[in-house]
Amino acid sequence: MPPVTDRRQRLSLDWLCSRLGVTSDQWRQAVAESRFNYCQYPIRDPRSGKLRELCHPPKDSILFAVQKAIQRRLPEPIPLVDEVRGYRKGQHNIGVCSAIAGALYQGTIDISKFHPCITTGHAAEALAKHGVPPAWARRVSRMVTFHNSLPQGAPTSNHIANIVVDGILRRAILPFARTRGVAVLNYDDDIAFAGADPRAVKECVEHATRAFEKAGFRTNEKGRACEHRGDRRLFIGCATGRSSPDYPRSKYRTLRDELRSVLHGFLVPGTCAPRLSDRQLRSLKHRIGYVARMNRSKTRRLMDLFYRICAANRRFFAETYRTLAAHPHSPGSAGPSIAHAEGAERRRVKSVVRSRLFSTARLPTVLNVARIDGDGAPNVLDVCDGTPQGIPVDNQGRPRADLNLDRKVDLRDYAIFQNSMIGP
After folding, report:
1. pLDDT tens track for 34-49
2. Could you point out which of 22, 26, 37, 323 has its C-alpha 20 to 30 Å from the C-alpha of 404?
3. Secondary element (H or E) of residue 257
4. What pLDDT shows up at residue 305?
5. Rounded Cα gap, residues 217 and 172, in angstroms
6. CB–CB of 31/45 below 8 Å?
7. Cα distance between residue 268 and residue 280, in whole Å
8. In terms of DSSP bridges, do strands 183-187 and 105-112 run parallel, antiparallel, or are they unpaired?
9. What is the distance between the terminal CA atoms of the chain, rounded to a whole angstrom?
10. pLDDT for the residue 232
11. How many C-beta atoms lie closer than 10 Å to residue 197's C-beta?
12. Which pTM was predicted?
């Protein structure tokens, strides 16, 4: 009986908490929070445009701290097969696609609503088959799920999803594909099959579809049973028809048209030009940089449009600053961001003016007080050269009769003098 007592002790909650580095009170509080303490909100993927429902505990909660401890101690050390590439350190969709790029035939499967379809039973079964004691697997699976589904956005969700897919691949898909010489790759909810025999690729796709449906998952219709490398096939956002991953032509045209429309708003008179912030410009540059990682020749026209947008955006803000400077008190002329930029621009202009007017770097040590035209004003301050002697001038050498400040004494100045004496 002592061995049984020792086994029960090893599988107890206190032993699990000691392995995770948390206390029993923290675990119990996290169990209570796992029933309600989640933040749910939709977010749109900027690249694909998909609307995803994110669900995760608050970062300052006990539940979040316990899930981070579970992530570090349980799912991360579990070894996975090489075919599982998603959510793993050092893996990127471009590098994953390079493993199957150029294959003669390719088939794909896309799992519909992958994270919400993973239940508490899926997580417990996958953890138990990967060596976690069943008692611990049941406790951990209840801790990392919310309303009997895996939340998308929690610290442990991606690792649990990898473990679930790894179990299905090991048990049902990889042995079937290896006997037919078909390569298998998984990235998140997408699975690709590549090989030289189209019949073998189709059989693997059909077999994998049945295996996932038997496990309780559904597949999307956008999956393809078999495509030749000349059919403009795609996998996780990359074109895999050539020997190396390429940026899809349709997405390239969409990005190019977007840049052209932004530039059109700046250049065409009468159109409402959008105000692009530094964050929006950095986002455009990162998207172009993503294209450059796959095909640098496609980025030449995109970068040319981007630089023209940056120049037009600078001109737009400069004109806005000048308008605000001319009408600083116009109601509703600009929002808070423009008002803040206006203040920064005014401070910059003031500093430049002060440096030019009051800087002593360009002035000689001894001021040259020679009078070339003999009007009595120093040369460094004289704005009117060649003034005859005897003409009264001001401190800048301008004749006092120059009432319109055009450096000339003519009938216009006389008209101003006359109007000031007799009135308009």
Report:
1. 998 899 888 876 655 6
2. 323
3. helix 249-267
4. 87
5. 14
6. no
7. 21
8. unpaired
9. 118
10. 84
11. 15
12. 0.69
